[in-house]
Amino acid sequence: MLLLFLNLNRNNQSEDNVSLNKVCHLFCPYFSNESVPCFLYRVVPSFQQQRIFVTSLACPSWSLTSTVMAAAVRFFIRGANSRLSVGTGTSGSLGAALLKLSPSCSSRSKTQRRHAAHFTYQPDPVPTQYGETQKMNLFQSVTSALDNTLSSDPTAVIFGEDVAFGGVFRCTVGLRDKYGKDRVFNTPLCEQGIVGFGIGAAVAGATAIAEIQFADYIYPAFDQIVNEAAKYRYRSGNLFDCGNLTIRAPWGCVGHGSLYHSQSPEAFFAHCPGIKVSPHKVKDNIKCSFTDGDPPHHSRAVMQVPSQSPVGEDPTEENYFAGCRQICDLLSVFFQSVVKTGRLLVSHEAPVTGGFAAEISSTVQEECFLNLEAPISRVCGYDTPFPHIFEPFYIPDKWKCFEAIKRMINY
Amino acid sequence: PSNHKGAVLSTLQSLQARAFIFVLFVAVQKCDLHKLDEAPATEVVMTREEGLKYYHIMQTIRRMELKADQLYKQKIIRGFCHLYDGQEACAVGIEAAINMSDHLITAYRAHGYTYTRGGTVKKIMAELTGRRGGIAKGKGGSMHMYCKNFYGGNGIVGAQVPLGAGVALACKYQGNNELCVCLYGDGAANQGQIFETYNMASLWKLPVIFICENNRYGMGTSVERAAASTDYYKRGEFIPGLRVDGMDVLCVREATRFAAEHCRSGKGPILMELQTYRYHGHSMSDPGISYRTRDEIQEVRSKSDPISLLKDRLLSNNMASVEELKVIDVEVRKEIEDAAQFATTDPEPPLDELCNHMFSNNPPVEVRGTNPWAKLKSVS
């Protein structure tokens, strides 16, 4: 088996791409005759790296194959201004022969690199305008935000099921010891009561931070959130409001949560005017929510904030449960990104029908219709309850996203 | 197995030529009453056969839970697993007093009830490991087990109580003299929907027995810190209530008999509080010792373990011999081992089960998948 990898650098001119395209189409029928898997990627501008995999089986047509390969390499090299690196797989001598054909290339160990992702993670630069920074995971940053809030705001109280000892997700560790049991206290097991109580406290002027232990448990409180909290300001003509209320609820799958510890109910609440649903950049959001004036409902990933959400230029992939954007300019960032790249993929764990991806897709296509080069892809959960044994199959993982990206690029 | 057991027993008996007591009159603890003039009997009758049966069932539940603990630690069972050991007398006592045609619904600590209501250990364990031989086809897991006249297995705390009242309404409507036993815990007793249910059940005189299994801790919160009134049997206010020692299987049985009669005579709902204890933590993620001391657990185990209590009763009253009970133990152990073996080796449900049984549909319905080109079929 011969594998030929051609890595072209990112500064390709479009004419190279056109010629590459031609080559690919040229070879396609040949290889398909051989009934051999042939992966040819259509080359798209601004792809960071393009690879063309050409494989063929050994025997009868090897010599023909190698001739064709050599021709291909020569053809590609003719493309000006492109640095090629050619590496080969198992067939050493043929590889060497190919190398000789291309004087200005070097065989690097790039070929040994896995083919899976060719995005390099670029972390956000550390913000300098807030002073000293510290690396924390999601839960620590929540604890820190709550700590700051309780210290700066004397009316702030935290309550919920089991928050006193630190919470089942360790988000309130140490706060009770620091601020006392009248500010950080447990409630009995009654979500409707917790939220109703929180609304009352907020309306009366306290900064209330209610915790719902898992987002799956929030439904008894749905009426209170949607009918009371969300509409208070509106129905009282701004006389009362519960802008000081924050409800925290961990959502998302934990790996073994099954039906009732894995749900993502954000779409239900996003549909309700009057509340803010914020899934990320929790620390900033908690802070801005208390000065903002509308009750936000924080959902946050149960897992640690993954630091490798791909921020590649193309296509735009918005994994909002991974959390990498400011809430206030979320949509404008999407638009800018789509204008630049032409493709969008939205992914979440909640079922696809009526999920939040639908809203994003719809809004983006309204604003950026002419910039789109492929339909917006939604890689989401299936339209079933969150399964017990099928969880690894259910969640929209990187492979499904990758598949969707491939299809969008080949559209 | 019962043939084998019978053969061994008769052999033992003939060897030992011992005369056992076949019927025993036992005094059990008096129950606290709320808005009731009569009380369950304090002098109860237990036959040898009944005693051995209760022992067998309780031992099966205990071993099954311990096996589940073991499998969980080996990561063969994953997800959430809430174990019932320590509370066996509740399940067995209740079942002894009602018929198989009556209905029962409980929360997520349901393995014991699944067994007493007719599920086999094999199917229960296969459901825990999520295999196709499971009682819910492997799709539910620990918290969602069902069988005939047993409505689960419910994950959301307190949500099963209105359901139970609904089942009782159906019984009343159909006039079949059946009732519904509706269980919940001390944590759930503070949920709003429970009180809504009390009101409806009482208003319409539904044949429902509300049972609060008070194991003193709602996950990590002790009852004193969660409830303004820890007299859970009085929380029904206008519903008559009983407080029962939940570690004595006979006490539970008598109280349930009394309650069942109350319901079937058309007097409406009744509330029972079973004072019991769980040895494990709330679930397998909870070590169970951060909010209570090991001494406390040890004390309950030594003084009030339901299986030990029954065993002492049988042995001290000469109703069974030590060897007999040992035979039962061995049998139970074998059954559990076989079930665990089955649960570990049975294949997982096929992937097309993912979308099945969402709606009632014929022909199969298309379910949207992760991508627009990936559509799955839902068969029901």
UniProtKB/TrEMBL annotation, chain A:
Its cofactor is thiamine diphosphate. Keywords: Oxidoreductase. GO terms for biological process: branched-chain amino acid catabolic process; response to nutrient. It catalyses: N(6)-[(R)-lipoyl]-L-lysyl-[protein] + 3-methyl-2-oxobutanoate + H(+) = N(6)-[(R)-S(8)-2-methylpropanoyldihydrolipoyl]-L-lysyl-[protein] + CO2. Residues 136-302 form the Transketolase-like pyrimidine-binding domain. SUPFAM superfamilies: Thiamin diphosphate-binding fold (THDP-binding), TK C-terminal domain-like. Its EC number is 1.2.4.4. One of its GO terms (molecular function) is branched-chain 2-oxo acid dehydrogenase activity. It is an enzyme of class 1 (oxidoreductase). This is 3-methyl-2-oxobutanoate dehydrogenase (2-methylpropanoyl-transferring). It comes from Oryzias sinensis (Chinese medaka).
From TrEMBL, chain B:
GO terms for biological process: glucose metabolic process; pyruvate decarboxylation to acetyl-CoA. It is an enzyme of class 1 (oxidoreductase). Its cofactor is thiamine diphosphate; Mg(2+). The keyword Nucleotide-binding does not apply. Coiled coil: none annotated. Residues 58-350 form the Dehydrogenase E1 component domain. Its EC number is 1.2.4.1. It holds the Pfam family E1_dh. It is found in: Mitochondrion matrix. Keywords: Carbohydrate metabolism, Glucose metabolism, Magnesium, Metal-binding, Mitochondrion, Oxidoreductase, Phosphoprotein, Pyruvate, Thiamine pyrophosphate, Transit peptide. GO terms for cellular component: mitochondrial matrix. It catalyses: N(6)-[(R)-lipoyl]-L-lysyl-[protein] + pyruvate + H(+) = N(6)-[(R)-S(8)-acetyldihydrolipoyl]-L-lysyl-[protein] + CO2. One of its GO terms (molecular function) is pyruvate dehydrogenase (acetyl-transferring) activity. PANTHER family: PYRUVATE DEHYDROGENASE E1 COMPONENT SUBUNIT ALPHA, PYRUVATE DEHYDROGENASE E1 COMPONENT, ALPHA SUBUNIT BACTERIAL AND ORGANELLAR. The pyruvate dehydrogenase complex catalyzes the overall conversion of pyruvate to acetyl-CoA and CO(2), and thereby links the glycolytic pathway to the tricarboxylic cycle. This is Pyruvate dehydrogenase E1 component subunit alpha. It comes from Oryzias sinensis (Chinese medaka).
